[in-house]
Design brief:
heterodimer; A: 330 residues; alpha/beta; Rossmann fold; 2 domains; five-stranded parallel beta sheet; four-stranded parallel beta sheet; 11 helices; B: 187 residues; three-stranded antiparallel beta sheet; 8 strands; 27% helix; globular
Chain lengths: 330, 187
C-alpha cells in the first residue's frame, strides 16, 4: 500500500542548496564586488538566453509589462542598441534618452532626472555616464534596477561579461587561459571590468601598451604589465585589443597613431607569432589599421562579431537577473 | 529492511517511498506505450529541475520494455513565467533542449508535482515559440490539486489530496543526494 499512515520522523537537515544558484543584486554596477560564482551564474544564464535568438519566435515574456529606460548621458550606439534589443526580446518596454534630449543640458541634476524617471515607474535604468560612480550613485538612491553601461574610466561590466562569455564559449573554460589586453588601459573601463572578471575566474592577465597608457600601478591588481607586444603574443590564448579612445585622452600620451600601430598594432606579421587557435577580440568600434590590421579583423581568428551576438545574450541575462530581484520592503 | 529515508523538513510525512515511485513511473511508462504506438515519435521533455530526472527514468523504462529509447530533453520555464514579480529572487534559467524539428513529434512534458498548472502553461508557451508539435501530453509524479488554470495531466503517478498551505517535497537520489521519496509537510 502506498498510502500507509504518515509516519513522523526526526528533524533532519534540508538538502544542500545548489551552488551559484542565487543572484541577489537588484543592480549591476561593476564586477569588482561580484564573486566568481555570481559571474558564472550570469554566464550560465546568458547561455540559456543565447538560444532564444535561434528560435522561431525570438521573444520571451519574462519582463512583460516592465519599463526600461536607456539613459545615455555619453554617446554610444552599439551598447544602447544591444540593451534595447535585449529588452525587446524579454518583452519589456523601452524608452531611449540621450544627453542632448534630456533636461541635463538645462541644468537638472542627475539625481533629479533619475527621480523623474522613477516617478514614471521605470523598472530598470541602463546608465551610460562620463563620470565614474554615476551608476553607483543612482543605484543607492533608486528603487529601480540600475545597470551600468559604462561610467567614465571605472567599469563597463556587461562588456567584460560578454568578453568572458565569448572566451568560455570558444575555448571551453576561463581558468588558466592567458589573456593579453592591449592598448589604452589607463582610460579603459572595459579593461578594468575585464581584469576583475578574468582574475576572479582564474585566468592570467597581461596588460600591454605604451608606458603612458599602461602604468605599473596596475600590477597590484594581480596582472602582469609589459610594454613589449611581440614577447607576449606567442604565450597568449586571447588577445583583446582595445580601441584608442581619442575622445577620452589628450594627444600627449603617445606621439602619433602611426607610431602606436608600429609598436602596439596587431599587424599581419605580428599575428604570425600568435599560438594556433588564439582568439582575437575587440570591443568595437574598430579603428581599422590602428589597433588591428583590417584583414585580421575579418579573419577566422577574430571573434569580434561573436562578441556582438554574445553581448545580446549577456545583457538579456543581466536584465532578467537584476529585474528579478525584489527589494524587501523595509 | 532499509532504514527510513530522512524527511526534507522536520515533521514531514512520507507519501511515496523508493519502491512506490518506481512502480508509479513504470506504470506511466506502460501507459505511454498504450497511448503512443510509435515511440520513435515521442520526446520526453523535463521541466526543471526534477522533471528532467523523471524524463530520463521514463526513457530508461521505455527502453527496457520496448527496446526503443525516446528523445529526452529539457524545457526552460523560468523565462516564460507570468509571476516573475512574485519571486523574491529570479528563478534559475536552464537551456532548452528539444528535437530539431517538432512538426510530427508528440511532446510529453514531465514534472514532479502538478499544482496550479501555471508551470505547465509556461512550458507549453515556451515550446510553441520553437515550433508546432503534433501534440503535447503531460506526465506528473504527483497531482496535488488546486488548479488555477484549465489544465490536467494525461499521466499521474499518484493523486495526493492536499490543503492549499501544505507542501509536497519530491526528492531523488540523482538530484538531491537523498533516497527517492515524496513527502508532505504542513508548511
Amino acid at each position: 500500500m502506498e498510502t500507509a499512515a504518515p509516519v513522523k520522523y526526526q528533524a533532519a537537515p534540508t538538502p544542500p542548496a545548489r551552488d551559484n544558484d542565487t543572484w541577489t543584486h537588484k543592480d549591476l554596477v561593476g564586477l569588482q564586488d561580484l564573486t566568481a560564482a555570481e559571474i558564472n551564474h550570469v554566464l550560465d544564464t546568458a547561455a540559456a538566453f543565447k538560444d532564444v535568438g535561434a528560435r522561431e519566435v525570438k521573444k520571451v515574456p519574462a519582463l512583460r509589462g516592465q519599463t526600461l529606460v536607456n539613459f545615455f548621458v555619453e554617446a554610444s550606439t552599439r551598447t544602447r542598441v544591444s540593451f534595447e534589443l535585449a529588452a525587446h526580446r524579454l518583452s519589456a518596454d523601452v524608452i531611449n534618452m540621450t544627453a542632448t534630449s534630456s533636461s541635463l543640458t538645462k541644468g537638472e541634476t542627475l539625481k533629479d532626472t533619475a527621480k523623474n524617471l522613477e516617478a514614471l515607474h521605470a523598472d530598470i535604468i541602463v546608465l551610460r555616464h562620463s563620470s565614474a560612480g554615476a551608476a553607483q550613485f543612482l543605484a543607492e538612491r533608486l528603487e529601480a534596477s540600475v545597470i551600468n553601461a559604462g561610467d567614465g574610466a571605472h567599469e563597463h561590466p556587461t562588456q567584460a561579461l560578454l568578453d568572458t562569455f565569448t572566451i568560455r564559449e570558444k575555448l571551453g573554460r576561463v581558468a588558466g587561459i592567458h589573456v593579453a589586453i592591449v592598448g589604452d588601459i589607463l582610460f579603459s573601463r572595459v579593461a578594468r571590468s575585464n581584469i576583475h572578471a578574468l582574475l576572479k575566474l582564474g585566468a592570467r592577465v597581461t596588460l600591454v601598451g605604451p608606458s603612458t597608457l599602461v602604468p605599473r600601478e596596475f600590477e597590484p591588481m594581480g596582472v602582469k604589465v609589459t610594454h613589449d607586444l611581440d614577447s607576449v603574443l606567442p604565450e597568449a590564448d586571447v588577445v583583446n585589443l582595445l580601441r584608442i579612445q581619442h575622445e577620452r585622452q589628450r594627444k600627449e600620451y603617445f606621439p602619433s597613431l602611426g607610431e602606436y600601430t608600429q609598436f602596439f598594432g596587431l599587424t599581419k606579421q605580428r599575428a604570425e607569432r600568435l599560438k594556433p587557435g588564439a582568439l582575437i577580440m575587440h570591443p568595437g568600434p574598430i579603428n581599422r589599421g590602428v589597433e588591428i590590421d583590417s584583414d585580421l579583423a575579418d579573419s577566422v581568428r577574430s571573434v569580434i562579431l561573436d562578441q556582438v551576438t554574445n553581448g545580446l545574450a549577456v545583457r538579456m541575462a543581466v536584465l532578467y537577473l537584476c529585474a528579478g530581484v525584489r527589494v524587501p520592503e523595509s | 529492511m532499509n532504514p527510513p529515508p530522512t524527511p526534507p523538513t522536520p515533521g514531514a510525512a512520507l507519501v511515496l517511498d523508493r519502491a512506490s515511485i518506481e512502480r508509479c513511473l513504470k506504470r506511466i511508462a506502460h501507459e505511454l506505450i498504450e497511448r503512443n504506438p510509435d515511440l520513435a515519435k515521442i520526446a520526453l521533455i523535463g521541466i526543471p529541475s526534477r522533471g528532467i530526472e523523471i524524463a530520463k527514468r521514463l526513457a530508461g523504462y521505455l527502453k527496457d520494455f520496448t527496446g526503443t529509447e525516446p528523445f529526452t530533453g529539457v524545457v526552460d520555464v523560468a523565462m516564460h513565467r507570468d509571476d516573475l514579480h512574485r519571486h523574491r529572487l529570479p528563478p534559475r534559467v536552464e537551456r532548452t533542449i528539444l528535437p530539431h524539428d517538432l512538426e510530427e513529434v508528440t511532446i510529453v512534458l514531465t514534472d514532479d508535482v502538478l499544482f496550479s498548472g501555471r508551470t505547465c502553461r509556461a512550458a507549453m508557451d515556451s515550446i510553441s515559440s520553437f515550433g508546432r508539435p503534433a501534440r503535447i501530453q503531460y506526465a506528473v509524479l504527483v497531482d496535488r490539486g488546486h488548479r488555477e488554470l484549465p489544465i490536467r495531466a494525461d499521466y499521474v503517478g499518484k493523486n495526493v489530496p492536499t490543503a492549499l498551505g501544505q507542501r509536497v517535497h519530491v526528492r531523488f537520489a540523482a538530484t538531491d543526494g537523498i533516497e527517492d521519496s515524496v513527502w508532505m509537510s504542513q508548511t
